[in-house]
Design a protein that fits this description.
Elements: E1 2-6, H1 11-18, E2 25-29, H2 39-49, E3 53-56, H3 70-91, E4 95-100, H4 123-138, E5 142-147, E6 150-151, H5 158-168, E7 171-175, E8 179-180, E9 183-184, H6 185-202, E10 208-211, E11 218-219, H7 220-233, E12 242-246, H8 266-272, H9 279-291
Parallel strand pairs: 1-2, 1-3, 3-4, 4-5, 5-10, 6-9, 7-12
Antiparallel strand pairs: 8-11
Helix pairs in contact: 1-6, 2-3, 3-4, 5-7, 7-9
The chain binds NADP nicotinamide-adenine-dinucleotide phosphate (NAP).
NADP nicotinamide-adenine-dinucleotide phosphate binds at residues 6-7, 9-13, 30-31, 34-37, 57-61, 76, 80, 98, 100, 128, 147-150, 155.
Length: 293
């Protein structure tokens, strides 16, 4: 089966390329080869590659920058997804797409289910929600996989930032009043390939929206503590910085972050048998890999 992967050089895109199972003819395109917001490029790519499945890992992900760059955020996250959705439908093929916990307001006390009301606070979340809606409107066979707090070997993320700051500063303040599920880009890629493999066997999938994030839920502060503990154990850091718990109010950002980003992932477990990954194990695997690079 020929699979088109968009955004192939991003955090998740790179892992989709690395972890592609045998039997798939994978064509990964970065933004320089395919700008998903360009209708002509999308049409040309579909014509040239004739994919049988699309996995969209392309997105405008600069959460704070989006507040002053909404035109570009919507062009990629809403209109680009809409173009891919129409192209997939016209070709009679499915589209697997990735979305975010930022579609929720984050003031619920319970983990968010797929049936909970969406209410994004910022431009990024609103543009991603608009993309989910464009996908549902224009494509009949789609999966939207909402995830959170992505970390991995490629690109910038919280783990890499902490490792850098850990070598630069003896003390760090990390936000302790936002909770979520850190999710390894490699685990997201594995979940998407699991779906693709099932599709090749069954010719069908239980289409729709699913949540997928790492467990157990934690705060950024908890995550930072684990990063430094494991990094020191593995010899990546000689000494650990002192980490203090701060509040969201102590660390203002242009875009408001959800206080509760925790996703209920039981629907995915029931429909696909995919369990929540333990982020502590994925973190260990990543730090191990970083140690040997
Ligand atoms: N990062 C997180 O914490 C997080 C959390 C929840 C959900 N998600 C979702 O997970 C998915 C993957 O995110 P990620 O962390 O892998 O992001 P990422 O590392 O920023 O990768 C996104 C990729 O999309 C590419 N891209 C941007 N605009 C494009 C366009 N117009 N056409 C084609 N490609 C374009 C980027 O290429 P350039 O760099 O060349 O622009 C980049 O390689 C996204 O849907 C994101 O919304 C991420």
């Amino acid at each position: 089966m020929r699979v088109l992967i968009t955004g192939a050089h991003g955090q998740v895109g790179a892992e989709l390329m690395r972890l592609a199972p045998a039997g798939f003819d994978v064509r990964g395109l970065g933004s320089a080869q395919l700008d998903i917001s360009d209708a002509v490029q999308v049409a040309r790519t579909m014509h040239e590659l004739q994919p049988q499945l699309i996995i969209n890992a392309a997105a405008y992900t600069a959460v704070d920058k989006a507040e002053n760059d909404s035109g570009r955020a919507y062009a990629v996250n809403r209109d680009g997804v809409g173009l891919l959705a129409r192209a997939a439908e016209q070709s009679g093929i499915p589209l697997l797409h990735i979305s975010t916990d930022y579609v929720f307001r984050g003031d619920s006390r319970a983990p968010y289910t797929e049936d909970d009301a969406t209410a994004p606070s910022g431009v990024y979340g609103a543009s991603k929600l608009a993309g989910e809606q464009a996908l549902a409107e224009h494509c009949s066979r789609y999966i939207t996989l909402r995830t959170s707090w992505v970390f991995g070997a490629t690109g910038n993320n919280f783990v890499k930032t902490m490792l850098r700051l850990g070598t630069e500063r003896p003390t760090l303040g990390v936000v302790a009043d936002q909770r979520g599920g850190p999710t390894a880009s490699a685990s997201i890629a594995r979940a998407l390939w699991h779906m693709a493999q099932r599709y090749t066997v069954d010719g069908d999938l239980p289409w729709g929206i699913y949540h997928y994030s790492g467990a157990p839920a934690c705060s950024w502060h908890d995550f930072a503590v684990a990063i430094f503990e494991q990094a020191q154990q593995l010899g990546l850091l000689a000494t650990r910085p002192q980490i203090s718990a701060i509040t969201t109010a102590d660390y203002p950002t242009p875009a408001r972050r959800p206080a509760n980003s925790v996703l209920d992932c039981s629907k995915l477990q029931h429909a696909f048998g995919i369990p929540q990954p333990d982020w502590r194990l994925d973190l260990h695997a990543l730090l191990n890999a970083l140690r040997s690079t």
